[in-house]
Amino acid sequence: RGMGIPEEELWFEYFGINHLGWVKRVLHHGIDITNEVLDNDQALLRHGDSMLDPDFIRIIGMVPNEYLMFYYRHNEIVQRVQENKVTRAQIIADLNKRLFSELKEAEKMGEEGAALRVYQQYSHARDASYMKVETSDLDHETLISSLWDSAQETAMASDEGSATGYAGIALSVLRGLSGKDAHVIVLNAVNHGAITDLDKSDIVELPCYVDINGVHPIVVSHIPEESRGLLQVVKNYERLTVQAATEGSYKKALQALSAHPFVPDALTAQAILDDFIEAHGEYFPELS
Predict the structure, then answer these.
(1) Partner of 36 at 20 to 30 A CA spacing, among 54, 56, 70, 141?
(2) Cα separation of 228 and 197, whole Å?
(3) Model pTM?
């Protein structure tokens, strides 16, 4: 986007973990065009919005995925969510209500294909809701109406036979594993040493070659220092969280929260954990 180059002609040297990754290089027909991408403000937009200031992206010298705004603009994003007094979960819940309401109307009409068109409209509205709570100034009701109405045009113009989002990724993986269409997909996979700065058993997010023999992460080796620390800290939080869940350990859960960069100190971490146990302790009796 913004460069006028078809995506299939580009290669993105991407690395990270789930919801925390960077594009280190962009190649076009084997030529490194990373600097041209970084110099193009339009190319740095995500979902049509500026998630991070283009000048800041140029300073780090890599293109972060959109979730990095929660780290690089943490206080601002928290304040915006608090002011909007709505979460994406609430947006999705309202879209779900609209979906079932419209499906009932479609059933009454009895028109062939009406239910499918309603679902496609819902699916596009749900996709478009991504990051809107954090970036939009619209009130809750206006945002829902805007998403639903805009999705009707998108659904009508889209290819009904194409699968997008997680469904599209899942189908691409299945096609690769079946041997019908081996290709490269960005996936979460076992590291196996592809990123040497993380444990071999860690789950990482990398371009992977998927074929009948399995999923093969493409080696990145060492990651740049400007992203290494954050990546390792969040991965440490993930490891401790897994240990807390598998061991039923309050101690490990507290260690995990204390390690996360969003949590200011250990006392806050303990307050969060104790509130969580009070609210949901019946599902985690071993932590009580």
Answers:
(1) 70
(2) 8
(3) 0.85
Distance CA 92, CA 100 (A): 12
How do 203-211 and 214-217 pair as beta strands? antiparallel
CA distances in angstroms from 93 to 88, 120, 140, listed in the order given: 8, 17, 12
- Beta strands, E only, 178-224: 183-190, 203-211, 214-217
Q: List Cβ neighbours of 187 (8 Å cut-off, separation of 6 or more).
A: 169, 173, 205, 206, 208, 210, 215, 217
pLDDT digits (tens, 9 = 90+) for 61-97: 999 999 999 999 999 988 888 888 888 899 999 999 9
Helix (H, G, I), strand (E, B) or coil at 223: coil
In the predicted structure, residue 162 carries a pLDDT above the cut 60: no
Cβ(207)–Cβ(12) below 8 Å: yes
